[in-house]
Structure formats: structure tokens, C-alpha cells
Design brief:
By secondary structure, the chain is α/β, with parallel strands linked by helices. The protein has 3 domains: 139 residues, no CATH class; 111 residues, NAD(P)-binding Rossmann-like Domain (Rossmann fold, 3-Layer(aba) Sandwich); 183 residues, no CATH class. It has 13 helices and 15 strands. It has a 4-stranded parallel beta sheet with strand order 5-4-8-9, with helices on both faces. The chain has a 3-stranded antiparallel beta sheet with strand order 1-2-3, with no helix packed on it. Strands 6-7 form a two-stranded antiparallel ribbon. The longest helix has 40 residues. The N terminus is likely disordered.
């Protein structure tokens, strides 16, 4: 989860980042800026090689040390044979990583795409190794060792990539190896750009401040609205202050995000950038038309923008439904006794029914009744906004525990079996909120609502769902069984951390 604080404020004419003056990030940082992308790729490659080899040999160790205690397996295996297997596996994985773009400067919400890429790569590698051992009889590798090694790969590669990500964060906020950028336009489009840059330090772009044509914003601060990524940036002026702002912040790039201004104004800004030798990037006037769904293609060198359509293939829908049924039945069987205990405790802790029933909106706007263990007092208005923290006086003492551990959500597995909900998907909202949806927010109704999802495991889960629509839009755009699996694993991790709903 990308929870870190990035703050740039105006102090004595200099922008500061985490208390460091921009003037201190001088020649040393500028030199590193030019060589760091290549260096970081090489370091990432070295880290991957070490982790892959280490994971494969850890599988060998588990087989010979741990399982030997239980007399499992077919006896000792030659070590040199598995050293060769480790090198072969390393080559296969690195090739797949490269093809999947895991060494490119990319970004996604909560690094989900990187996690998906690692899972896919390990699955493909396992398929290659097992297929080779089946068709080539002279290959006598232990399938148990390979299986344990693949499990270690999944765990250790994700840990390693997370550590590397934190290192990039550390360098990023200190201006090392980055391109400093100003954002022209302090509106929604500009804020969206800054959030993307702060969310993904591997992009190598460090926002230093805003420019805007609205004098009322000059000298003020623009703060992030998301707890997932936090920043506070100054508005340094308008067009006349562009040259001074570039010099003050040592900016290398300008991102123009002015959806509502004329093309003449855009041309003036671009000409100014050319005069002061600053690289410019222009965000087209499409923000109000589902910017999240815009894709670009080239027609003989001519850039064209078009709208991506969300297509849920039949096999994805069938696989997702079967996953829902199997996992709902498994969870009800596993947590059934605990659900009985929770029901008794809820009943005895405060007057009122055990279950909380509420009408919610699901797939394609269809209404259904959602079930939860009651966590608030019975006289609480049924359709009030969701509490934003555990100190809300509407929540009962036992309800605080249920919400923190997510135990109040367990009855929703019955909603999943009934087909009203899925294990993974956008949270279902109340009808009076959905009635005020705009065209973009309505996109979240294209899939079934879920018990868990990207928003539920993000740092913004304490806020209202409709105020953090980007998580759901990302899910709708990328829905797949693999994405569901990644989100489920992250949910389990968050629950064990005690990071359930507030």
C-alpha cells in the first residue's frame, strides 16, 4: 500500500520537500537524475536474480531439512542439479518479467499490476518446468522441490519488490534520480496528475508545485484528498510567474492540465516553455469524459485518442462465479461456529436484532437486501452515511471490534451464494447515493458489488465510497480472476494487521 507522506511547501522563496530546501538538491541530484533510471533497473535486476536463486534453493532446503523430519519425499537430491535448475529458472523468469514490463517505469493503483505480473510470471514458469519434466524423461527434478520453490518465489519476490518500492520512495521525496515538474492547472485534472506521480515513484517525476490562471489560488496550498497518497503543494502563480517558478523550483518539465481553457492559451504556455527551455507535456481536454477510460493509438505516426470499452468475457464471468460459490461455501463452513458466537454476543450486548438488513444497489442498478452483523445501536437512522471512524457514537462497543476485524461482513457470504454480490468487487452503495451518480460513478455498477475490493484494502477505506471512485473504476476496467485472487490475498493480510473497516 502506498502510504507515505510527500510535502512540498513554499518557504523563503524555495520549495522544500520533507524539510529539505530545493536549493540543496543541486548538482548531485541533477547528475543522479540522468543515470538513476539505468542504475535502478540494473539494481532491480540484481535483486531479482538473488531472490529467484535464493527462493529456488530455499525450496531445496525445505525438502531436505523440514520434510526429512517427516520422512517425506524420495530421498536426497543432488545439490548441483538444483543449482542448474535455479539458473534456468532465473533466466525464464527474467525473460517473462521483461516481456510483462516489470522493468519499465509504470504505475498502477497500489502496485496491483506489479503483483499480478509476478503471480503470472511464477505460474508460467511453473507450467514450463512441470511440462518439461513430463515430456523430457531424462529430466528428473523433484516436483515437490519445484513446488516449494515456486511458493517461495511468490512470497519472496513480492517482499523484495515492496522493499525496492520503499527505497524508490525514499529517493523520490529527496529529489534523487527524479525529474522535477510543475503542474499548470490546479483543478481536478492537475490534482489527478500529481496523485499519479506521488503514487508511483518509479515514474521518476517529482511534483514541485502548481501554476494556475486563477489569482485567487496564488499563494495557497493544494492538499491531497486521499490518505493513500499524501501531499501538500503550493500554487506559485500564473502565466506571468511561469519563468520565475521554473527557476525557483529548478523544474525540468511542465505538465499542462487545463481542460477548460482555449487552445490559444495552451499555445502561449507552450511557446513560453520553448523559450525557457523547459520540456512540456499536454493533457488533452477529455477529463470530463471518463479520462480513466481513454486510450491512445497511433495512425501512421498520428496520435489518436479513443474510449476503451469494458468487455467482460464469458469465461471470466463463469470463472468468477464459480470462485464466488466455492469460496463462499468454504468460508461459511470455516467461520460457521464463529458466526454463531458473534450472533449471541451481538444479541446480548445491546437491544435489537442480530442482523442488520439494508437495501443496496448492485449489478446494473438492481436493488437487493444486504446482510451484516449489527454493529450500531438499533435507533440509528437506517440510511445515514457510513461512519468514517470507530469513534462514531452510533457504533456499539462490540460493533467497534466487529468492524475493526471485519467480522460484521461474514453474513454477506449468503449474499454471494444468492448471486447478489461477489467476493471481490465495488462496495454496494445505498439507493439515495446512487441516485446522484454521474456518468463516471455509474461505471461501478457494471460489475457485481463485492465483500472486499481495492477501496476496502486502501488507506481511503475510512472515507465515503463515492468520494474515492478511482479504485472501483480501475477494478471494472481490469476485472479478472487473477485480480480477484490478488485482492483476496491482500484482504487477508490487512485483516491480520487489524486494518478492517473503521
Amino acid at each position: 500500500m502506498a502510504e507515505y507522506q510527500y510535502i512540498a511547501v513554499k518557504s523563503n522563496g524555495n520549495s522544500t520537500i520533507n524539510g529539505k530546501s530545493a536549493s540543496l538538491m543541486d548538482i548531485r541530484a541533477n547528475t543522479l537524475m540522468r543515470i538513476t533510471p539505468r542504475i535502478t533497473t540494473v539494481l532491480q535486476l540484481i535483486a531479482d536474480v538473488l531472490v529467484i536463486c535464493g527462493s529456488m534453493l530455499t525450496g531445496y532446503w525445505i525438502y531436505h531439512v523440514v520434510l526429512a523430519e517427516f520422512n517425506l519425499g524420495k530421498g536426497p537430491q543432488p545439490f548441483d542439479q538444483y543449482v542448474r535448475l535455479s539458473l534456468i529458472t532465473t533466466g525464464i523468469l527474467l525473460f517473462i518479467f521483461e516481456k510483462m514490463g516489470l522493468y519499465r517505469r509504470t504505475m498502477s493503483i497500489m502496485n496491483i499490476e506489479e503483483i499480478k505480473g509476478i503471480v503470472k510470471a511464477v505460474i508460467y514458469t511453473g507450467a514450463i518446468l512441470f511440462t518439461a519434466s513430463f515430456y523430457f524423461k531424462d529430466i528428473t527434478y523433484s516436483r515437490l522441490i519445484v513446488t516449494y520453490s515456486l511458493i517461495c518465489l511468490l512470497i519472496f519476490l513480492n517482499i523484495e519488490r515492496y522493499i525496492v518500492y520503499k527505497i524508490f520512495q525514499y529517493l523520490h521525496v529527496r529529489g534523487i534520480g527524479v525529474s522535477r515538474a510543475l503542474i499548470y492547472g490546479a483543478g481536478e485534472a492537475g490534482k489527478m496528475l500529481v496523485e499519479r506521480f506521488v503514487r508511483s515513484p518509479r515514474l521518476g517525476t517529482l511534483p514541485m508545485g502548481f501554476l494556475d490562471d486563477n489569482p485567487a489560488l496564488w499563494g495557497g496550498m493544494v492538499d491531497s484528498r486521499s490518505d493513500e497518497v499524501r501531499y501538500s503543494l503550493p500554487v506559485l502563480g500564473g502565466f506571468d510567474q511561469l519563468k520565475d517558478a521554473v527557476r525557483q523550483c529548478s523544474a525540468d518539465e511542465l505538465f499542462i492540465s487545463l481542460p477548460s481553457v482555449s487552445q490559444t492559451r495552451i499555445a502561449e504556455i507552450i511557446r513560453q516553455c520553448e523559450q525557457i527551455k523547459v520540456k512540456f507535456n499536454y493533457m488533452p481536454n477529455l477529463y470530463d469524459y471518463k479520462m480513466q477510460h481513454i486510450s491512445m493509438r497511433s495512425l501512421d505516426g498520428i496520435p489518436l485518442l479513443t474510449v476503451k470499452e469494458t468487455h467482460l468475457t464469458w469465461w471470466k464471468l463463469i470463472t468468477k462465479r464459480w470462485m464466488d460459490i466455492v469460496m463462499a461455501l468454504a468460508n461459511l463452513a470455516l467461520w460457521g461456529p464463529l458466526m454463531i458466537v458473534v450472533a449471541i454476543v451481538v444479541k446480548k450486548s445491546s437491544p435489537g436484532p442480530v442482523l442488520f438488513k439494508q437495501e443496496r444497489v448492485g449489478l446494473n442498478g438492481r436493488k437487493f437486501t444486504m446482510y451484516k452483523f449489527r454493529s450500531m445501536y438499533v435507533n440509528t437512522p437506517k440510511y445515514a452515511l457510513t461512519p468514517e471512524n470507530s469513534r462514531d457514537p452510533r457504533i456499539t462497543p462490540i460493533g467497534r471490534f466487529l468492524r475493526k476485524t471485519s467480522l460484521d461482513e461474514l453474513p454477506q457470504f449468503f449474499n454471494v451464494l444468492a448471486g447478489d454480490m461477489s467476493i471481490v468487487g465495488p462496495r454496494p452503495e445505498m439507493p439515495f447515493i446512487v441516485e446522484n451518480y454521474d456518468a463516471i460513478q455509474s461505471e461501478r455498477l457494471k460489475v457485481k458489488p463485492g465483500i472486499t475490493g481495492l477501496w476496502q484494502i486502501s488507506a481511503d477505506r475510512a472515507k465515503q465510497i463515492h468520494d474515492n471512485i478511482e479504485y472501483d473504476l480501475y477494478y471494472v476496467e481490469n476485472v479478472s480472476p487473477l485480480l480477484d485472487l490478488v485482492i483476496i490475498l491482500r484482504t487477508i493480510f490487512e485483516v491480520f494487521r487489524g486494518k478492517g473497516a473503521s
